[in-house]
Amino acid sequence: MDKDKFIDLHPRLYHMAEAGSWDSVMRHGLLSTSAALDLMQVAGAARVALERRHRPVSVEIAKKGVGRIVLRDQKPMPEDRLRTALAGTGNTDAWYAFLNGRVFFWANRGRVDVLLNARSYRHTTHDVLTINTRKLVDSYADRILLCHMNSGNTFPYPHKRDMGIFKTIATYEVRRNGNPLKPVAELTIDYSVPDLMDFVENVTQSGR
Q1: Angle at 15 between CA 51 and CA 163, to 5 degrees
Q2: Under a CB-based contact definition with an 8 Å cutoff, are residues 103 and 191 in contact?
Q3: CA 141/CA 147 separation, integer angstroms
Q4: Which of 50, 100, 109, 163 keeps 20 to 30 A from 18, CA to CA?
Q5: Cα–chain-centroid distance for residue 206?
């Protein structure tokens, strides 16, 4: 897909974070789980459990002098359902590790609203960040992968997936008119976006 075409279709991106995460974002930027574990110097078995295994609940990690970060739960991706979705094309540990090594943005607000109203999140409050797509893409184009599905969700059906669902902007399949063959659901960036504040246009609180 042409970069400008993607930006025209998705002039804003969205990120949903735990309520109260804004202070951490202002200090450290937006961190993947792996980046947060590095920052907090989490290692050994504790790191393996958080980075390469299913995380059924949100987990707070902290370090004196650094602060606290909440690692979001992975409720929609239990190991048994993920194994079915991978259908022999990869192991669950590697999939968890790959997703935990990336920062995720939704390509449209509708996806955020669906998640905010999901059973697991509808009674909690979240910070919703609105991001300027052009500025972000111009700065991180070589670290971006797009995905047509919610790569961390296996409900209501564990749709088949493998690493091939992630594409660079340039290799994302399009129709003759340049529009994507499948609508983009996620934009992901490797490891972290330390200068996220340069791209944030708005922050709102949502949830009940």
Answers
A1: 50
A2: yes
A3: 15
A4: 163
A5: 18
Centre a 10 Å sphere on the Cβ of residue 145 and count the other Cβ atoms it contains: 19
Contacting residues for 3 by C-beta, under 8 A, at least 6 apart = 137, 141, 169, 170
DSSP helix/strand/coil, 137: helix
The pLDDT of residue 120 is above 80: no
Vertex 92 angle, CA 86 and 98, to 5°: 100
Torsion of CA 156, 206, 133, 183, to 10 degrees: 20
pTM of the full predicted structure?
0.95
Mean residue pLDDT across the chain: 94
pLDDT tops 90 at residue 203: yes
**Cα-based angle 128, 130, 136 (whole degrees, multiple of 5):** 130
* CA-based torsion, 32, 62, 119, 202: positive or negative: negative
Asked if the model's pLDDT at residue 116 lies above 90, the reply is no
The burial class, CB within 10 Å (0-12 / 13-18 / 19+), for 65 is exposed
